[in-house]
Amino acid sequence: MMCLIEGSLFCMLIAIYFYLRLGVDVWPPPGVQLPDVFLPTIALIPLIASCAGSYWASDAAKRGDRNGMILGMTLNLVLAIIFLVFRAFEWKSLNFTWASDAHGSIFWAILFLHTYDVIADLLMTAVLTFAVVTGRAGQKQRIGVHVDSVIWYFLVGIWLPLYVVLYWGPHFAGAPQ
Amino acid sequence: MSTLVTSVKAPAIDASQREQLESAWRNKPGIAEWFSVTTHQAIGKRYIVTAFIFLLLGGIEALFMRLQLAAPENTLLGPVRYNQMFTMHGTTMMFLFAVPVMEGMGVYLVPLMLGTRNVAFPRLNAFGYWIYLAGGLLLYGAALTNTLPDAGWFAYPPLSGPNFSPGKGVDVWAQMITFTEISAMCVAVELIVTILRMRAPGMSLNRMPMFCWSMLVQSFMIIFAMPAVMVASTVFLLNDRTIGTHFVNPAEGGDPLLYQHLFWFFGHPEVYIIFLPALGMISSILETHSRRGVFGYPALVLSLVGNGFVAFGLWVHHMFATGLPQIGEAYFTAASMMIAITSGVQIFCWLATLWTGRLQLTAAMHFIFGFIFIFVIGGMTGVMLASIPLDLQVHDTYFVVAHFHYVLIGGALFPLFGAFHYWFPKFTGRMIDEKLGKIAFWILFFGFNLTFFPMHIAGLHGMTRRIYTYAAEMGWGQTNLLATAGAITIAFGGVIFIVNVLRSLSRGARADSNPWEAGTLEWAADSPPANYNFVNLPLITARYPLWTERSERGIVVGMRNDRREVLITTLMDAEPHHRSVLPGSSIWPFLTALGFSIGLVGSVAAFYWYYIASVLGMIGLIGWFWPRQPLDIKP
C-alpha cells in the first residue's frame, strides 16, 4: 500500500519533470551545468548490493534465524550509508539550488524526497536491528524485518528510473530543439 | 495456525464467552485512555461528529456569503472578508467535511457489514483521525490569528503565489491539505486491507454489500489521487511561497498550469471520492426499503468500478478555458460525457429496484428520492458543461456553482442524511424521529432548490463566481434575493435536523438490533454494537445473510475470545486463512500525530520545522512499534 502511494507520488514527479522540460527550449537552463553522471553511477553499486543484505535479513526472518537477521540488516545499513555518503558528495557538486529555476526545483524535490525516504527506512532498519540484537524479536518483529526489506527494494527500484531521468535525461534531451 | 471449524447450527450464546469478549475489547475509562481508543466504532463516531461540526461551520460561512449577496452593493462583508468566506466554505466542505464524513461512515460500518471485529490497522485508524482533527484545528486556529486563506478552495497560482497573496493564509491552507490527505490515505489503506482480507467466511466478493464495494473503489481512488494534491499544495505552492522554488513561477521556467493539472488530477476524482460512498449508502437504503436485493448487482458493481476509472480521465474539463490543444479538449469532452453512462446505469438499477420492490416511505427514503431528483438535474447540467462551447460561455459563473452544488449536495449530502437516518438506530441504539425527519427533509429539499436553481439563471445572465457584490443595473438582484431566502430555509431545515438528532438521542424509542428488517450483517450486531461487534463471527451463505432462514445461518467457532482476535480470510472467496490478533488501546498514535502536527504547523513558518516534524514523528513511530511482551504470539 505504502509502495502504491509512494509509487504514484514518484510517477507524478517524473511526469512533472517532463512537463516542465517541454515548457522550455533549453534544459537545463543556460548557465546550469549538466548533472554529473559519474558519482551517481558509482553510487548505484553499494545501493544495489545493499538489496542482498535485505534479502538475507528477510529470508532469515522467515526461518526465525536471529543471527541471519542481524547480519543481513547490518550489511544493508553499511552499504546504504556508503550510498548516502556518495549522494552527499554529489549533492555538494551541484551548481544550482532549488531556488535557481524550475529545473533546479524539480531536481531538488525528487532528490530530497528520495533521500528523505532512504534515511527514514535506514532509521527503521537501525531500530529493528537494535530490537533484534537486544532480543526483542517476536513474530511481529520478524514480519517487520520482512516489510522493511520490501520497502527497501521499492526505494532502490524506484531510484533506477529517477536516476535515468535526472542524470541521463538532460544529456539526451537537453539540447535546444 | 489452528484449523477452523465452521458450524451451521448456531448454539445459544454462552454468557462466559460474552464476558471474555467484553473484557478483551473494553475501552478503559480515563482521559489518557480516551486518547488511546482504537476500536472502529469509537473512531468512526468521532469522525462523523467532528465532520458534522465542520459542516455547521461551513454552512455558517455560506450563510454569510448569501447574506452579503442578498442585495446589490451590500456592505455586510468587505471584499477581503468575502474572499476569506468563500475560501473557508469550499475548503471546509471539501476537505474537512465531505471526505472525512464518508471515511467515518466507512470506518464505522465496513467492519460491521463484513462481519469482523475491527479494521485491519486499528492504531493507524486512530492516527488518521488525530491528524484530521489537527488539520481542522490548524485551519480554524488561523481564524483566531486572522490569517485566513483567501485564494479560493483550489488556490490557483499566481494569485496564491508569494507575490499576490502575502501573509500566512495560503500557507496555512496548503499545509491543512497535507493533514487531511494523510488522514484520508490512512483510512483508504486500512479499509482496502479490511475489505479484501477480513470478510466473514463465505462472503466472496460477489456477496459483499454494495457499500463495501463503493468504499473499496473509493479507497483505491484516494491512493492514486491524493498524492497529486499533496504535490501541488505542499511541494509546489508552499515551497514556492516559503523557500523560493519556482515550480509555478513562469519567470523561471515554472508553469501555473501545471498546478491546475495536478490539482484537478486530484480534484476531479475527489468528487467521486465523495460521491461513491453515497452510492453505496443509496443501495443499502433502497434494498432494505423496497424489501428486495438491489436490481442488477453486477451492473452496479461494474459501474462503480467504471466510475473509478473514468473519474481519472476527466480532470481537464475544469480547465477548458485555459487554451488547451483541441485534441485534448475533444478527448476530455468525450470522457466527461462517458461518466453519464455509468451514472445512468446506476440510476436505472435503482429505479428498477424501486419499481419491483415493496416500498416503505421512511424519512431515509425521502432523502433518497430527493437525491434522485436533484442529482439527475445536476447530472444534466454536467453533460451540458462537458461541451466546450457552452463551458466557455458559462465558465466561472454561477451556472457552474449551481451545477456542482446540485451534484455534491444532491449526490452526497442527501444520501448522507438518508444514511444518517437509516443507521441512526445502529449508531445510538435509539430510533430517530420519523416525523421530524420528514419535515426536515421537505424544508431542506425546498430550501435547496430555492437556493441553487436561481443560480443557474444568474449564471446564464453572466454573474461570475467569487464577486463580493454587484451593481443594481446588472439585474441580478431578484435571483440573488431568492437564493438567499433559500439559504435561510436550508439553515432552518438544518436546525430541525439538529433538534431531531439531539431529541432522539435522549428520548427516541429504543431500537432493537434490526429495526428495518434489513438483510446485511451490521444489523445482526446489537444497537449500538458492542466493541467486538459480534459474539460469534458469522458464516455467510448468501448475499443478504439476515434474509436467509435462521436455521441456515452459521457461525465461526474455534476463535479465542480472551484477546482481540480476528479471522483473516482469502481475497476472492473469503475462505478462512488464519487468525490474527489486533492491537488494543495505545496512546502512541495520538502522540505520533501530535509530533507530526507540531512540526507541520511549524513548517508554515519555516522549512526547518519539517526536520522537527520528522524527529518527533520518528520518536512517536518507534514508541508505536516498540516490541511489547509477550513477544511471540503463539496461536
In short:
Chain A has 177 residues and is mostly helical.
What does this structure look like?
The complex is a heterodimer of chains A (about 180) and B (about 625). Chain A has about 180 residues and is mainly α. Chain A has a single domain, classed as Cytochrome c oxidase, subunit III, four-helix bundle (Four Helix Bundle (Hemerythrin (Met), subunit A)). Chain A has helices spanning about 1-20, 40-65, 65-95, 100-135, 140-175. Chain A is elongated and about 60 Å long. Chain B has about 625 residues and is mainly alpha-helical. Helices cover about 65% and strands about 5% of the residues of chain B. In chain B, the strands form two sheets. A three-stranded antiparallel beta sheet of chain B has the order 1-3-2, with no helix packed on it. In chain B, helix 3 (about 40-70) packs parallel to helix 5 and helix 5 packs antiparallel against helix 6. The interface of A and B includes residues 2, 16, 123, 140 and 141 of A.
The residue ranges of chain A in which pLDDT falls below 50 over 5 or more consecutive positions are none
Sheet of most strands of chain A: none
Mean pLDDT of chain A: 85
Q: What is the radius of gyration of chain A computed over CA atoms, rounded to a whole number of angstroms? A: 18 Å
The pair of chains with the biggest contact is: A-B, 37 and 36 residues
Total helices of chain B: the number is 17
Based on the model shown, name its key terms:
A: 177 residues; 80% helix; B: two-stranded antiparallel sheet; 17 helices; globular; disordered N terminus
Q: Which SSEs are present, and which pair or pack?
A:
The complex is a heterodimer of chains A (177) and B (635).
Chain A: H1 2-22, H2 38-63, H3 66-93, H4 102-133, H5 139-173
Chain B: E1 5-7, H1 15-25, H2 31-34, H3 40-69, H4 79-114, H5 122-144, H6 169-197, H7 210-242, H8 256-289, H9 297-310, H10 326-356, H11 363-386, H12 388-394, H13 398-428, H14 434-460, H15 477-507, E2 538-539, E3 554-557, E4 565-569, E5 576-581, H16 588-602, H17 609-625
Antiparallel strand pairs in B: 1-3, 2-3, 4-5
